[in-house]
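Appendix C. Worked example: ABC transporter permease protein
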Amino acid sequence: MHDPTRARVDTLRIIAASPGVFETLGAHLTGAPFTEFHDRRGEAVAVLGREAARRLGITDTRGRPVVIADGLPLVVVGIIDSTARKSSVLGAIVVPDGLARTRFHLDGPTQVVALTRPGAADAVAAQASLALRPGNPGIVQTSVPPTATTTRDAVSSDTRGLLLALAGVSLVIGGVGIANVTLVAVLQRTTEIGLRRAIGARRRDILTHFLATSTIIGALGALLGTCAGAWITVAVAAVQGWPPTLDRWVLLAGPVIGTLIGLLAGLYPSWRAATIEPIDALRAGA
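Step 2, the predicted output written as structure tokens:
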């Protein structure tokens, strides 16, 4: 397509646009964009996207290179190096709307890109359908690109979910650790448990003893972890120059959740200790 003397054919997308599209897209060009003059007269000119120019072997617009699109020679007046929006144009051939209407029988635009002031995008999108198609606004679909606030909120939500998942895994690991420690304590103190049972200790006394031990371990671990997390948050905020923010419910929920985890983790070891018979414990110790 680039050089008529070379037998080369590439399939590229052709986009018809008004001259203001380059400013709207925040495009940076090598060469120049087509103008209202080109559009009004239906001039056979084109602006190539960076990827399209690379595929066609065009590196600059000096000498006015020509590409053949559907049998029509188009003079390349500019190359889009980058865009702030709609990066899809980097792989396309952009021609004036006036040329597309006369040569390619374009009836009307299929997509309108509007550049708005900060904060006005939602209001413009709500009114665009009626402004473009007063008689049938329902056929126009509008979309608003995510703002910096929306993106930040989405990232914060994902980060919060990841941290909650890590916290959940940490709680499970902590619970398993407390259960293992309590179970080892039961096995090591089997003789002691048998003696206590032999001198009158009831099953619920043994159960309560080990259950209280695991609960205290969970509560102390959660309390220390909450304090450490609070201090780290304050220290990082001080280093970064941010105002430290701590939710009270988090500071209160940490020890409570740790206590519950310790209680649940100690259920099986405590039940096992309570079911030890005195005679079996003394035989095992002998």
